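testing teh design pipeline on a random one, pls ignore if ur not involved
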């Protein structure tokens, strides 16, 4: 049992003003492994006030980008030194298999931070523009106080995805971790303090939904950066819209992997081991619909079924485990409800569909494949967020594209083909923010984000800074010589 009794506010560990607690439950054992205080509205007020003071009166927004980067460079070093601890911590709180945690949950945040540090010097913080109509200095200035609301599935990675560009831009932040996974946020606060971040520049307050809404609507917050479900994103968008508050939303997905008729079926199936089942299916960008030529559907199902059969399900701390538990009992029930809907609506269960034998304590679901799925079925349209994949058949390329685009979401996708040029052409027809040709990742120097109900705005790449700046144009006399 690991209990915390304070919040990180204003560069200090401070006592909460309320007495409510959040219990952190092990997805593997179902037992409570930690408790942290649940922020009250008054605690959120304190955190926002600290961030407001640091922005309005502190020197962080007025430091140079290089000076801010120096602090975050020290944070990168600390993330590297504590990588093993981070991996174990995230695995214990949300059940990510430890081998994946070491790369995605621990190494990923450092690699992402280093990417922003590499991109920052070349971002156009200041630029001159001249035309016959005038001369301007265009400035990109920090947007202000940011409320960063992050989910439980990749908590530290997504925290860094918001903090790194916000802090490099000169913003201050109130970080609100998910109630299921607050422990990594406490560790991050410790590392930020050790790196020398000034008081109040980042504040950490775990909170439930009601208090989270208080943060989102707080008049001292200039910008909300949210990653989570589309339902929650719609609510946040409506709240921010009322106040004309800046907001970016990285939301759900129902992404399609399209196998063209010349695809290497075995290679595609192997790529989807990670592409469809990473983090036990609890990743918004996973390819949870696989669109295959009707003539090759059974060939694909044989290959994909063999891949799934080779993925051990079990203790997330075991390096051999590839499928761990769902984050919570509620999430398992949600996934099982979708599996039942697939059966009831006539999809063919190829493998899985139940709870794995011998794993009675944790929140496990067998990796599951459905075939003969129609586009109107619930399992084809709604995000499940578990290890459940639907296979849909097509007759020609136009139909394949139509099936892939038949979704309210548009976050990610893949095209598998023996002809990468053809793959790029098909990718251009998919209404989604990211498309991987033959499973090739886009990397952290490219923007990621969604079309349609998958969100508003982009993260990562130089475009990741755009969410945390306001543009200002200053008219200049033509004979003025600016200092560098």
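output:
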């Amino acid at each position: 049992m690991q209990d915390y009794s304070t919040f990180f506010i204003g560069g200090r560990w401070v006592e909460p003003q309320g007495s409510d607690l959040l219990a952190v439950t092990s997805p593997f054992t179902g037992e409570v492994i930690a408790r942290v205080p649940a922020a009250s509205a008054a605690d959120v007020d304190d955190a926002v006030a600290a961030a407001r003071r640091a922005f309005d009166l502190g020197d962080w927004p007025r430091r140079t980008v290089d000076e801010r980067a120096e602090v975050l460079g020290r944070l990168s070093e600390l993330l590297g030194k504590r990588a093993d601890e981070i991996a174990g911590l995230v695995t214990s709180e949300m059940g990510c298999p430890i081998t994946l945690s070491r790369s995605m949950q621990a190494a990923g945040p450092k690699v992402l931070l280093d990417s922003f540090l590499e991109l920052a010097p070349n971002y156009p913080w200041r630029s001159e523009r001249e035309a016959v109509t005038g001369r301007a200095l265009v400035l990109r200035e920090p947007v202000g106080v940011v409320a960063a609301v992050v989910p439980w599935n990749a908590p530290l990675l997504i925290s860094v995805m918001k903090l790194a560009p916000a802090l490099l831009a000169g913003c201050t932040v109130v970080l609100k971790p998910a109630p299921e996974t607050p422990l990594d946020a406490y560790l991050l606060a410790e590392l930020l303090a050790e790196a020398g971040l000034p008081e109040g520049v980042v504040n950490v307050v775990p909170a439930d939904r009601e208090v989270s809404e208080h943060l989102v609507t707080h008049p001292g917050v200039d910008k909300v950066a949210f990653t989570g479900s589309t339902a929650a994103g719609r609510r946040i968008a409506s709240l921010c819209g009322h106040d004309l508050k800046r907001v970016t939303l990285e939301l759900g997905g129902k992404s399609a992997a399209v196998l063209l008729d010349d695809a290497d079926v075995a290679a595609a199936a192997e790529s989807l081991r990670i592409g469809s089942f990473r983090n036990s299916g609890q990743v918004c960008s996973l390819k949870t619909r696989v669109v295959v030529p009707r003539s090759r559907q059974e060939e694909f199902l044989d290959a994909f079924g063999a891949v799934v059969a080779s993925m051990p399900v079990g203790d997330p701390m075991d390096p051999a485990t590839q499928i761990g538990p769902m984050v919570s009992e509620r999430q398992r029930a949600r996934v099982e409800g979708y599996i039942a809907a697939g059966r009831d609506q006539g999809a063919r269960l190829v493998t899985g569909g139940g709870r794995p034998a011998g794993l009675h304590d944790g929140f496990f679901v067998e990796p599951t494949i459905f075939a003969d799925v129609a586009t109107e079925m619930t399992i084809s349209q709604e995000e499940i967020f578990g290890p459940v994949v639907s296979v849909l058949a097509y007759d020609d390329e136009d139909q394949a594209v139509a099936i892939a685009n038949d979704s309210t979401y548009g976050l990610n996708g893949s095209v598998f083909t023996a002809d990468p040029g053809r793959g790029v052409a098909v990718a251009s027809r998919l209404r989604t923010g990211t498309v991987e040709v033959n499973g090739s990742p886009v990397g952290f120097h490219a923007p990621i984000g969604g079309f349609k109900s998958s969100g508003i705005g982009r993260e990562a790449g130089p475009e990741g800074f755009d969410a945390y700046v306001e543009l200002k144009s200053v008219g200049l006399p033509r004979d003025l010589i600016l200092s560098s």
